[in-house]
Input
Amino acid sequence: MASAPKKVAERLVAGIKRFQPILASAKARDVGEADTVTIIKDMLADVFGYDKYSEVTSEYAIRGTYCDLATKIDGTLQTLIEVKAIGLELKDAHVKQAVDYAANQGVDWVLLTNGICWRVYHIVFAKPIDQELVINIDFCALNSRSESDIDLLYLWCKEGWVRSVLGEYHTQKQALSRFFLGAMILTDPVLDIIRRELRRVSPEVRIETEQIKAVLTNEVIKREVQEGDKADEARKKISRAQNKALRASSPKDVKPEAASSPEIIIRATPAPDEGTN
Output
């Protein structure tokens, strides 16, 4: 995870100290959604570094309806933000609503929050549209002295967004997901390594990669990791990466004049008595 620059970290520390009591008080008073939106706008500016007059838009219009907030950088729509009342527990239905908004706008990121819980989702433009939870923050549980907590908030800051740290964090999280690791274990290069190591342990036993794959598939790796859209996407990414690596490492086509050179012809022709010893 990327580390927050010193100046940004200082702002985040001050923001945690300032807004934790504000949020606790708002929850105790059970304020409504409109008042929660007001708090969120202040947090976007004072904690996360957005200009609330030019980079935060209220009630962003989407096909006849409205999303509570949206952030823009240099005039480009960045994220849609769905806000719920601070006392309302966030549910799957709220996520679906925000994801539908994003799908209509072709936006990759959605924030769902009630002020205390901040959930950042990456939109998966598949059929059907899906989402991945990338960040889940309980703002009131953050420790202003914790470097890891500060770095987690930095992912959502304007400065972090400009440096693409959220996208990098998402890519890293994907690479370490159970679906990606499950698909990676079942690739031929990994199976070959497992076969080699098993032969070292039991050199007298004949073991084939297909046998190893069958055991991993049926007895070791959970079915839920091997099936579904996320598993399919992981396999596709690995396959694309392998094909790209093969293309990069394959030798260039031999030039016509090189193919007819005497040196190559001699090397390709075995000696008359080769193999007689």
